[in-house]
């Protein structure tokens, strides 16, 4: 029986090695499908995603690359540097203004993260491990849900820079130039997600100390390393201060760092066990399966850890430090810890690859862990495909998109809304800007009726209630529930 198992293992490794490029393309294509399929059909999410998109759109309209605005006013709520906005601007200019184009930079960033990760693992550990990691990455559902690959937030881009910096860190012992890549990626991560990037500093600093690599870095290398992140970040700071003074930077420090870490802001108060509960209870069976593989592998190979000391230290820090930092922070959000999933995928792939390669490995262990991984991949793959293939609908957003796109008659006009209230939800404002280039005003029915030339989005019932004061308007578009009208006062 053991001979048959070893033969299967050997055949599997030979098959992967022989057809590696084909398998890489197939799994990579599936990853691209997960990232891009029906990307523009999901409704825009209020708060972070919508506000992010509105800022990028307005920056493009204002020919601005430094100061982000919301509803054409300088934004001191979304306190992130402008790199991710500028990637979205590029997408808008290349693909037009739409929810699809808005999300493309995030989808590309996550696709690149998976490909770079698999390439790195293939070069360092083997082709079998590379394919395992790419499969795991492509079905790790949290990478494609809130705030990540399929949303227009900054997080997918941050994860890309975070991952490259960690990969470079693990290569410092072989090539000191990798230190500069760490510095550059830290600066890009900071210019994307602000203070979150300092987790990279904590991991990298401890890695250099615990591996003693810090003693091998020369003065010239230190200087160049420091320049790789101080120059880009410093350039942005100077540009922001020259245009806008210090208000944004002060708010970044006081609110986005000190307050967010010391208080549970915006209702995001959770217990100290929040992230552990999230991993166990929120559809991340693949991460749990990989965790089991890592646990068994750590026990079996504990005595050999010195042979891969730098890797053990690096991956341990990559998993533990973000978990500790964001557990201590009072404001807790699920996507804060997503970078650790990447490390879990890598280490799990390495151990599973070893189990499948080594002919001396206990057959029961190999078969059991392979089954656990396989079942988790199938289940999580099903969940992921079901998610990307079945976008939820928002009837109002759909109505607004269809009414505004290609309607040159109302382009760039003032717009009012009166649905739940006369205030614009951020998703409604973004849709109005992307598809109608509308200037969103506060005031509802009254504000619209007092305006010389504007459009109003409202409920059909509210329109009928106010039909007398709206009698000089014309209907642009309507459904059973909603109506868009235009004021035609002379």
Concise structural overview:
Helix content is 63%, strand content 6%. The chain has 20 helices and seven strands. The strands form two sheets. It has a five-stranded mixed sheet, with helices on both faces. It has a two-stranded antiparallel sheet with strand order 1-2.
Features:
2 domains; transmembrane; 490 residues; 4-amino-4-deoxy-L-arabinose transferase activity; mainly alpha
Distance between the termini: 90 Å
Count the E strands: 7
Largest sheet: 5 strands, mixed
Category from helices, strands and their pairing: mainly alpha
Low-confidence stretches: none
Oligomeric state: single chain
Q: What count of helical segments does DSSP give?
A: 20
The domain count comes to 2
**β-sheet strand percentage:** 5-15%
Task: Estimate the helix proportion, in percent.
Answer: 55-70%
Order of helices and strands: HHHEEHHHHHHHHHHHHHHEHEHEHEE
Q: Secondary-structure map with pairings?
A:
Blueprint: H1 2-18, H2 20-36, H3 48-61, E1 69-70, E2 73-74, H4 83-95, H5 99-124, H6 127-138, H7 155-169, H8 178-193, H9 198-210, H10 219-244, H11 247-262, H12 274-281, H13 285-300, H14 309-328, H15 338-357, H16 363-389, H17 395-404, E3 414-418, H18 426-436, E4 439-440, H19 444-450, E5 454-459, H20 460-465, E6 473-478, E7 482-487
Parallel strand pairs: 3-4, 3-5
Antiparallel strand pairs: 1-2, 5-7, 6-7
Helix pairs in contact: 2-5, 2-6, 3-4, 3-18, 4-5, 5-6, 5-7, 6-15, 7-8, 8-10, 9-14, 13-15, 13-16, 14-15, 17-18
Membrane topology: Multi-pass membrane protein
Domain Glycosyltransferase RgtA/B/C/D-like: 80-236
GO molecular function: 4-amino-4-deoxy-L-arabinose transferase activity
């Amino acid at each position: 029986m053991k001979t048959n198992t070893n033969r299967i293992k050997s055949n599997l490794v030979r098959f992967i090695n022989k057809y590696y490029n084909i398998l890489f393309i197939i799994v990579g294509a599936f990853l691209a499908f997960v990232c891009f399929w029906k990307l523009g059909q999901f409704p825009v999410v209020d708060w972070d995603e919508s506000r992010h998109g509105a800022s990028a759109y307005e920056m493009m309209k204002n020919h601005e690359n430094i100061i982000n605005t919301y509803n054409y006013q300088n934004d001191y709520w979304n306190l992130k540097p402008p790199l991710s906005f500028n990637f979205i601007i590029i997408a808008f200019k290349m693909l037009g203004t739409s929810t699809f184009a808005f999300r493309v930079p995030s989808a590309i960033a996550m696709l690149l993260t998976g490909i770079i990760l698999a390439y790195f693992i293939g070069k360092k550990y083997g082709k079998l491990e590379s394919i395992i990691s790419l499969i795991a990455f492509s079905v790790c559902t949290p990478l494609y849900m809130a705030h990540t690959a399929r949303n227009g937030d900054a997080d997918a881009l941050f994860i890309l820079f975070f991952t490259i910096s960690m990969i470079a860190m693990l290569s410092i012992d072989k090539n000191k130039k990798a230190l500069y890549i760490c510095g550059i990626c830290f600066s890009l991560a900071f210019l994307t997600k602000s203070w979150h990037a300092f987790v990279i500093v904590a991991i990298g600093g401890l890695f250099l100390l615990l591996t003693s690599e810090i003693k091998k870095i020369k003065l010239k290398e230190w200087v160049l390393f420091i320049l790789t992140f101080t120059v880009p970040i410093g350039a942005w700071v100077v540009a922001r201060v020259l245009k806008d003074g210090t208000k944004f930077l002060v708010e970044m420090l006081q609110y986005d760092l000190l307050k967010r870490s010391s208080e549970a802001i915006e209702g995001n108060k959770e217990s100290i066990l929040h992230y552990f509960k999230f991993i166990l209870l929120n559809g991340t069976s693949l991460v749990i399966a990989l965790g089991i593989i890592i646990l068994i592998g750590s026990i079996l190979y504990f005595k050999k850890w010195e042979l891969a000391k730098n890797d053990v230290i690096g991956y341990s820090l990559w998993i533990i430090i973000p978990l500790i930092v964001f557990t201590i922070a009072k404001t807790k959000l699920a996507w804060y810890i997503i970078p650790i999933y990447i490390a879990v995928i890598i280490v799990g792939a390495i151990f599973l690859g070893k189990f499948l390669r080594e002919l001396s490995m206990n057959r029961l262990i190999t078969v059991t862990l392979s089954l656990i991984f396989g079942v988790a991949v199938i289940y999580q793959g099903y969940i992921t495909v079901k998610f990307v293939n079945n976008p939820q609908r928002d009837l109002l957003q759909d109505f607004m998109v269809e009414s505004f796109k290609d309607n040159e008659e109302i382009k760039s006009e003032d717009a009012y809304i009166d649905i739940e209230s006369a205030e614009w939800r951020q998703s409604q404002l973004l849709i109005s800007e992307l598809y109608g280039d509308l200037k969103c005003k506060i005031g509802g029915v009254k504000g619209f009726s007092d305006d010389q030339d504007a459009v109003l989005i409202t409920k059909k019932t509210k329109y009928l209630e106010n039909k007398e004061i709206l009698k000089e308007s014309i209907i642009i578009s309507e459904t059973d529930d909603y109506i868009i009208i235009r004021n035609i006062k002379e």
